[in-house]
């Protein structure tokens, strides 16, 4: 249940056509950043409703692309209010002390046709950890790109789930982050 940022983060439009780096603006209404953890062998799902970022893409040389995504931790949403209250508490995201999570990447590799891996860093609760995102791209028009992807992070690497929640027996360490980012060229 902590799993951020991340994610969203994977918004590098290497499949886009133009000779120079282009700036892309996220379309919030068409973008989504979700996470899934496991508690007592049952899935626990949530979403971050607000995130933004800087996406610069050189379609002729994807290795020159950069992204920087910021997630508003207080925008966390879940199927029930008690879970949201727990997630923003000091033992979990500690949204009061750490209201933002950030994913940054400037190192990309092509893994297939329209598929890529971004090597970046995720900063959450004041801890920065290396994170790889796997994603695919599509370009429905010359000025719009869509990226979908995933990553798995370990909540304990960020200190998410402290005190009685630090054990990974009931609440597993791995958290899957999925994202869909739609953006328009500026």
Describe the structure.
The protein is mainly β and 186 residues long. The model is unreliable at 1-19 (pLDDT under 50). Strand 2 (32-39) and strand 3 form a beta hairpin. An eight-stranded antiparallel beta barrel has the order 1-4-5-7-8-9-10-11. The protein has one domain (7-185): Lipocalin (Beta Barrel), CATH 2.40.128.110. It has one helix at residues 81-88; strands at residues 22-26, 32-39, 42-48, 51-57, 66-72, 76-78, 100-112, 115-124, 127-141, 144-154, 174-185.
Write the layout of secondary structure elements.
Layout: E1 22-26, E2 32-39, E3 42-48, E4 51-57, E5 66-72, E6 76-78, H1 81-88, E7 100-112, E8 115-124, E9 127-141, E10 144-154, E11 174-185
Antiparallel strand pairs: 1-4, 1-11, 2-3, 2-11, 3-6, 4-5, 5-7, 7-8, 8-9, 9-10, 10-11
At a glance:
This protein is mainly β. The chain is built from one helix and eleven strands; from the N terminus they run ββββββαβββββ.
């Amino acid at each position: 249940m902590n799993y951020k940022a991340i994610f969203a983060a994977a918004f590098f439009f290497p499949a886009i056509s133009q000779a120079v780096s282009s700036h892309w603006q996220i379309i919030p209404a068409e973008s989504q950043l979700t996470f899934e953890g496991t508690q007592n062998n049952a899935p626990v799902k949530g979403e971050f409703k607000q995130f933004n970022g800087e996406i610069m893409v050189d379609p002729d040389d994807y290795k020159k692309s950069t992204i920087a995504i910021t997630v508003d931790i207080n925008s966390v949403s879940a199927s029930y209010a008690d879970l949201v209250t727990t997630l923003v508490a000091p033992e979990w995201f500690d949204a009061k002390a750490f209201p933002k999570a950030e994913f940054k990447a400037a190192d990309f590799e092509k893994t297939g046709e329209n598929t890529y891996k971004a090597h970046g860093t995720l900063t959450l609760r004041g801890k920065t950890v290396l994170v790889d995102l796997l994603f695919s791209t599509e370009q429905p028009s010359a000025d719009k790109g869509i990226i979908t992807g995933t990553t798995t992070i370990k909540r304990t690497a960020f200190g998410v789930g402290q005190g009685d929640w630090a054990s990974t027996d009931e609440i597993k360490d791995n958290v899957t982050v999925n994202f869909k980012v739609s953006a328009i060229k500026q």
